[in-house]
């Protein structure tokens, strides 16, 4: 993940459009590159895909994946769905929230960590599951997750 | 002789350290004649990472292998199938696998997912070869004879949609594969896409030949990055080997395919929201009619099916629809790929013909709970599925028997809850999830779910009001998100009344 960059952003939008792909694909490319969609990308997206500002903002707001603020250096996404609930995801989430002082959807003030919820990773026979910087982890308990979080910051 | 070691590389195995295991085995064996093959998963999730070695007597499995086990595995001569505490014996003798009747998953985990030669050597492309020699009408006749119904949730007879698309008088038509797999407790689509992607490709090409569509799209959820990589590679390989492209195997028939990655929205699994999303818009559910089969993607005829539905097609065409229809019970024909999840000892994929009981699935395959606590309830069919108590576990797993219970099988996900589960919290979560995912088109879904969650925050909720609210949601929602959220809510209220306090209406009487 790199820092926001106007030139790269414009290039990604252009390339997506040239390949005949849609607005959502351009948003995907931006999020993959920068972790979020910067406000400065809205105007080029409107122009390139011939959509109104309201339409572009509506699409961004609709999808969970399209953040509008930069994520922390590390992103932890904890599964909140039923199969993980059945094996302690609620307790695990409460533990992590308490430990980090963050709620789901928040980023720490120092920009080190973003905590998010996610609804099922397809690892439901081996929950609780999570994504840590896009790497899947499963069979979590507080010890295992604490160790993984500690490894991130060390 | 080269020793062959098979190590899965599906998302679950990766989550449990399979890469590390592969790395340490490769390092330890650097002076040995050894080949490590990264495969899909067998779906024996409780034993992942499950590695296999080829021996004279077939493949031997070692379960829950970690990098720390590798030295002792070598010391025990695991390359020769040696005894070790992690050894599970011959993989095909593992009861969890042996008692299944795998059709769709028969080759999953056998070979590297994009190894086209192995796919073909294990019966792959037999259906497509047959289809290339058939006319469109007779392909659809076989699908009709098979009794195949959609595995995405609604269980609609497949052939009706095929015939509608075939009959639509347009030059451009589409096959769309619904790989949004949003239901908690489900992972069959993931496993097959990551483990045997050519099967899905083959099914989609056959659907294209039958309906006159030459373009396909797989709508894949973004939570499945491994599947994306595998599918993209498999599509490239299939193109190179002429199983996709302008002139498939010299037949003069064309079909090509791409992958589209979603944006993290549950409702985008609903077929019309999915089409909107494919067109680059927010996933707002469309009014039906028009049916997608007539006016789907970009207003053109579109056949939409779940991954597993499409994966059932190759065998149906290769062996004839009759053989498929003979499996299962009555109008629940074929096999169902159940997924055991939540608090279950032996979680994973269980493919069996329709008709076995829920109890058999939970006890014989699942082995009871992982925690050792008694089961309180299972939720079947994802977030819109019913919570059922143990006294209903003898119900046979057929569409009809579950419809009679006011429940459904959905995509076959079964989530097990132990006695510690708080059923009011589960019911409230159903409303909260609806609030989170609602596309906003219908007021009962958008606002009703908020009110429902509020009502269930009280330990003595006004259940009469909850019932009224549910009635409004059922009657006034354009799709199952709103109209089926009452199913988990009211099933929990019906079967676990003491967790919802005294009914306010009863108290007033
Ligand atoms: C809220 C909602 C979510 C859905 N999610 C999925 C999904 O993730 N995968 C799927 O195959 N079908 C899903 N469906 C069902 C589809 O609308 C559609 O019925 C299905 O893709 C048709 O394929 P089939 O005939 O093979 O079942 C969903 C439906 C609703 C209402
Ligand atoms: S029921 Fe809910 S999700 Fe479905 S169309 Fe209406 S508002 Fe959208
Ligand atoms: S419910 Fe958590 S991974 Fe599926």
Write the layout of secondary structure elements.
The complex is a heterodimer of chains A (154) and B (509).
Chain A: H1 6-18, H2 23-34, H3 42-49, H4 53-62, E1 74-79, H5 82-85, H6 89-100, E2 113-118, E3 130-132, E4 135-137, H7 142-153
Parallel strand pairs in A: 1-2
Antiparallel strand pairs in A: 1-3, 3-4
Helix pairs in contact in A: 1-2, 1-3, 3-4
Chain B: E1 3-8, H1 11-15, H2 18-28, E2 34-39, E3 51-55, E4 58-62, H3 70-75, E5 87-90, H4 95-98, H5 116-121, H6 126-132, H7 136-146, H8 158-167, E6 174-179, H9 188-195, H10 197-211, E7 215-220, H11 225-240, E8 256-261, H12 271-278, E9 302-306, H13 307-319, H14 321-326, E10 328-329, E11 332-333, E12 335-342, E13 348-353, H15 358-365, E14 375-380, E15 387-388, H16 399-404, E16 413-418, H17 423-437, H18 443-446, H19 448-455, H20 463-476, H21 480-484, H22 486-495, H23 504-508
Parallel strand pairs in B: 1-2, 6-7, 6-9, 7-8, 12-16
Antiparallel strand pairs in B: 1-3, 3-4, 4-5, 10-11, 12-13, 14-15, 14-16
The complex binds flavin mononucleotide, iron/sulfur cluster (SF4) and FE2/S2 (inorganic) cluster.
The site of iron/sulfur cluster (SF4) has 14 residues of chain B, from helix 18 and helix 21.
Largest interface: A-B, 43 and 61 residues
Give a quick account of the main beta sheet of chain A: strands, pairing sense, barrel closure: 4 strands, mixed
CATH architecture verdict of the largest domain in chain A: 3-Layer(aba) Sandwich
What fraction of the residues of chain B are assigned to beta strands by DSSP? 15-25%
What's the arrangement of strands in the largest beta sheet of chain A? 2-1-3-4
CATH topology of the largest domain in chain B: Rossmann fold
Q: Give the overall shape of chain B.
A: globular
The CATH superfamily of the largest domain in chain B is identified as NADH-ubiquinone oxidoreductase 51kDa subunit
Name the CATH superfamily classification of the largest domain in chain A: Glutaredoxin
Main β sheet profile of chain B: 5 strands, mixed
Number of domains of chain B: 4
Strand order in space, largest sheet of chain B:
2-1-3-4-5
Unreliable runs of chain B: none
**Which assembly state applies to the chains in this document?**
heterodimer
H and E string of chain A: HHHHEHHEEEH
Q: Provide the CATH architecture of the largest domain in chain B.
A: 3-Layer(aba) Sandwich
The ligands found in this model are: flavin mononucleotide, iron/sulfur cluster, FE2/S2 (inorganic) cluster
